[in-house]
Amino acid sequence: MLVDHHCHLDFPQFADDLDGLVTRAKTAGVETLVTISTLISKVDTYRGIAERYDNVYFSVGTHPHNADEERGIPASEIVRLSEHPKCVAVGEAGLDYHYQNASIENQEAGFCTHIEAARQTGLPLEIHTREADDHTLRVLRDAVDNDGPFKAVLHCFTGGPALAMEAVAMGMMVSFSGVVTFKKAEELRAVAADIPLDRILVETDAPYLAPTPHRGRTNEPAYVVHTAKALADVHGITLREFAAATSDNFYRYYTKARRPGTAATLTGDAAE
User: Fold this and answer.
1) Beta bridge pairs of residue 128
2) Which of 226, 186, 187, 191 is nearest to 206 (CA)?
3) Cα–Cα distance measured from residue 28 to residue 25, given in angstroms and rounded to the nearest whole number
4) What is the phi-psi region of residue 209: left when phi exceeds 0, alpha when psi lies from -120 to 50, beta otherwise?
5) Can you tell me the mean pLDDT for 13-20?
6) 198-251: per-residue pLDDT in tens?
7) 175 partner at 20 to 30 Å CA-CA among 86, 151, 223, 248?
8) Of 57, 71, 79, whose CA–CA distance to 104 is shortest?
9) What backbone torsions phi and psi does residue 58 show, to the nearest 5 degrees?
10) How many other CB atoms are there within 10 angstroms of residue 261's CB atom?
11) Which residues of 123-135 are buried (b: 16+ CB within 10 A; e: fewer)?
12) Contact 267/225 with Cβ under 8 angstroms?
């Protein structure tokens, strides 16, 4: 069984086939999904999706692209909204130097607010960091040095080994998306190979970044099997072993999520 801890089920690409998407994920052996917040103002949407399906959870947070739009929302509001039983994470929040759709100042302020909310709730923070390794490390070091460790996941990791390994040393998780399956992603696979098995997660970031052999299509949670197979290969273990390890990591870290009581079989080309 696998978990897709980071997808965006509220996006318009899935509006007409959400039931089918969830069914295909289950059929492929993906037992649990977390639909991730990009705007706190849309929390009713995420909550509604999670309440519709037993195996779907949600997060609360503001994506760095939207940091200008939702600047000034206090940690206390995130904490309040996260009290819902199916809210299992905070974020996504962080720093994006690639697009800079919001000011870096507001991105950092929002990032720090989400760190405080993660600390207060005990929920993991889904961190978005793109082309911002040094700045992200500074924020994380300051937070840990000043107030101690907190739960966090570097989601859809595409950064360098320094950020990944220091995050692991802080007790955080590192998660990989379909990017790790791309032909030219040798350096990223090398980083993934060095992440201890008890600190690694797998995701889709659907509808984006579909893994090989589905690259160029709309991504969906069922495709996380292919990413898991690529990561199992770099760790020199079977897909079944990798799935068991990363699922255990998820339920250990996302303590409000409950493991389904029934098992399914991984399917599709990647399970061969």
Assistant:
1) 94
2) 226
3) 5
4) left
5) 97
6) 999 999 999 999 999 999 999 999 999 999 999 999 999 999 999 999 999 999
7) 86
8) 71
9) -145, 170
10) 5
11) bbbbbbbbebbeb
12) yes
CA distance linking residue 54 with residue 260, whole number of Å = 9
Would you put residue 237 in left (φ > 0), alpha (ψ -120 to 50) or beta? Answer: beta
Q: How far apart are CA 187 and CA 192, in angstroms?
A: 9
Distance separating alpha carbons of residues 192 and 122, to the nearest angstrom: 26
Amino acid at 100: Q
Rounded CA separation 228/239 (Å): 7
Q: What is the DSSP string of the chain?
A: -EEEEEE-TTSGGGTT-HHHHHHHHHHTTEEEEEEPPS-GGGHHHHHHHHHH-TTEEEEE---GGGTTTTTT--HHHHHHHTTSTTEEEEEEEEEETTT--S-HHHHHHHHHHHHHHHHHH-PPEEEEEES-HHHHHHHHHHHHHHH----EEETT--S-HHHHHHHHHTT-EEEE-GGGGSTT-HHHHHHHHHS-GGGEEE---TTS-PPTTSTTSPP-GGGHHHHHHHHHHHHTS-HHHHHHHHHHHHHHHSTTS---SS-----SGGG-
Task: Name the nearest CA neighbour of 64 among 11, 19, 130.
Answer: 130
HEC secondary structure over 225-249 = HHHHHHHHHHHCCCHHHHHHHHHHH
